Amino acid sequence: MALVKRKRESSLSPSSSSTRQPKYHVFLSFRGEDTRTNFTDHLYVALKQKGIITFRDKEELKKGERISELFKAIEESQFAIIILSRNYASSTWCLDELAKIIKCKDEIGLEVLPVFYSVSPSIVRKQTETFEQAFIDHQERFEDNIEKVETWRDTLKKVADIKGWDLHLQNRHESEIIQHIVKGIMEKLSSKSSSINKNLIGIKSMFAELIPSYLGFGNNIYMIGICGMGGLGKTTLASAIYYEYSDHFEGSSFIANVRERSEKGELHKLQQQLLDEILEGSNTKIYNVQVGDKKINSSGLRHKKVLLVLDDVNHKDQLEKLAGEHDWFGLGSWIIITTRDEHVLVQHGVLKIYKPNGLDDNDASTLFYSKAFKKEQPEEGYMQLSLEVIEYASGLSLALVTLGSFLVGRTLEEWQSALDSFKNIKGDIYNILKISYDGLEEMWKEIFLDIACFFRELKKNHVIQILENYGFNAIIGINVLVEKYLLTMDDNKYLGDDNEYLAMHDLLVEMGQKIIRFESGGKLGKQSRLWLIEYLHYVLENDMATEAIQAIVVQYAKNDFNLD
C-alpha cells in the first residue's frame, strides 16, 4: 500500500530529535584489509543470525558521511567489539574510531570488548612489531600534530588493559571462537535485559504467577495463552519473557501484531519470519499460507527446542498457520500467544490460559508516579488527587502511563479539573486515551492520525520523509508523540535490521481510527482518511467522495516505494 495525501503548509520550524535508547547492540571496529572478508564477516553474520543488531562500516560512503555515520553509530551502541589485527594501528581511520570508542566508554558507559585476533595484548600495549612501524610512520606524517599521535598511543594502551578474547596463540577453529564470542554477547545482553525486566513495573509479580505454574523446563511442549482486554500489559509481559529466556532455546521468534498484519494479507510473511528467525536465515521462500503451512511442518522445527511468541492473535486460522500442532516443535518448546479473545485459544486447544488482573495498588502507584512526577512519590499536595487518578485507571498500565504523561507538570487546579472530566467519561478506555490526544497541537494530531491509519510498523526515516513532503514538521512531531506515550520506537522490528520502526499500541490505533469515524458521522465519503483499500473501493463505486478526504491508501507494486 502507499499513501496519497494532500499537501499542507508548515507552520513550525523543525527541531532536533530527543535523546533515545541505543540503536545497535554491537559496533564492530576492524581493519578492513585484514579481516573484512574473513573473521569480521563471519562474526557479523553470526551476530545477525542471533538477532544481535550490529553496525559494520560501509566503505562506499563518502569520507565526510562515513566518519559522521561511524561516530553516530558508536554513540548509539551498547557494545563495541574491536578486532585488533596486525595492521590495525597503520590505519588512522581505525585509530580515530578507537579514540571515539574509548571516549564513549568513559562518558556514556559504552562497553568495550577487544578481540586480539593476530596480535597479543602485549604488542598492543607496548606498540611493538607492526604497531611500532605504524607509529614511526604516524610521527613522520603528523609531526605538526604530535598530540594526536600520543592520543592514539594512550588509547591503544587502554584497550590492551581491557579483558577480551586473546586468540592469536589459540589453536582453535575460527567458527568455534566466533560462537564463543557470540555466546558471550548474548549472555551480556541477557543480563542487561534481565535488569530491564526487573524495572518493568508489575512484571515481577506476573512472572511469579506465570512461571513455573504455566511454563517449565521439562520435556513437555508448553503452549499457553495470555488473555485479557487491551492495556493490561499482555505484550509487555510476553516481551519480557522472550528477552529473559530466549537464550535458553535453540531458536526463537517474536511475531508481533499478528492480527493487523493478517488483515493486510501478510500471514504468509509471518510464516516466513518465523522460519527465518528460528532457523537463522532459512533460504525457504513462502508466497502463500498453504505453502507456508507445509514448509513449517516439514522444516525440521520438530527437532528444535524453540521459543515462539505470537502477539495479538484474533482468529484461529492465524494459530493454525503459525503453530498448528504441538508436534510442529521440539520437546521443551514454549509457544506463547497473546490475545483479547479467549475463544480463539479454546478453539485451538490451548489448555493453559493466563489472565492478568492488571497492576495491584502498589505497582499502579509506582508506575503512575514515575510518569506524573518522574520519581517514586508524588509532590507535596498531590497525594489525594494521585490516588483518585490511580483508582480511576483500574490497574490498566496503558491508562496509568497515558494519564501520568498528560498530568506531568500541571498545577493542582488543572489536576482537579482533569479529574472531574475523567469522572464524566466514566472509565471508557478510549476516552481515557483520548485525553492525551486532545491536549496535542493540531499538527501533532494530524501526524498521530496519519500514523494510526497508515504508518505503524514502517521505518521512522521513511515516514518522516513522507510527512515532511506534505508540509508537516515530522521530526519534532514524532518526538512529541513519543514524549506523550502515544508512540514508541521499535529498534528490533526485524532481526538484523538496523532501522527504527514506528510502534503504536493497538488501543491507540483503534482510538485514532474511532476519532476519524466520529468526526465523519460514520460516513465513509466524509472521513478524512481511508486506510483500507476496501473503503476506497466502496467510496469510488458509490460516488461518495467529498472534499473532506485528505489521505487514501492505494495499491502499489513492491518496487515502486521503499517502504517495506
> Could you name the CATH homologous superfamily of the largest domain?
Toll/interleukin-1 receptor homology (TIR) domain
Tell me the number of strands.
Answer: 15
Q: Class by helix and strand content?
A: alpha/beta
The CATH class of the largest domain turns out to be Alpha Beta
Beta fraction: 5-15%
Instruction: Indicate the overall shape.
Output: globular
Structure description:
The structure is a single chain. With 564 residues, the protein is of the alpha/beta class. The protein has 4 domains: 24-185, Toll/interleukin-1 receptor homology (TIR) domain (Rossmann fold); 200-349, Rossmann fold; 361-438; 442-560, Arc Repressor Mutant, subunit A (Orthogonal Bundle). Helices cover 49% and strands 12% of the residues. The strands form 4 sheets. A 5-stranded parallel beta sheet has the order 3-2-4-5-6, with helices on both faces. The protein has a 5-stranded parallel beta sheet with strand order 8-9-10-7-11, with helices on both faces. A 3-stranded mixed beta sheet has the order 1-15-14. It is globular, with a radius of gyration of 26 Å. The model is unreliable at 9-20 and 556-564 (pLDDT under 50).
Pick out its properties.
about 575 residues, alpha/beta, five-stranded parallel beta sheet, 15 strands, about 10% strand
Q: Topology of this structure?
A:
Blueprint: E1 2-5, E2 24-30, H1 32-35, H2 39-49, E3 54-55, H3 63-75, E4 77-84, H4 92-108, E5 111-116, H5 121-126, H6 130-141, H7 146-160, E6 165-166, H8 174-199, H9 203-210, E7 222-227, H10 234-245, E8 251-255, H11 258-263, H12 267-278, H13 289-297, E9 306-313, H14 316-322, E10 334-339, H15 342-347, E11 352-354, H16 361-372, H17 383-393, H18 397-407, H19 412-425, H20 429-438, H21 442-455, H22 460-469, H23 474-483, E12 488-490, E13 501-503, H24 506-519, E14 529-530, H25 533-541, E15 551-554
Parallel strand pairs: 2-3, 2-4, 4-5, 5-6, 7-10, 7-11, 8-9, 9-10, 14-15
Antiparallel strand pairs: 1-15, 12-13
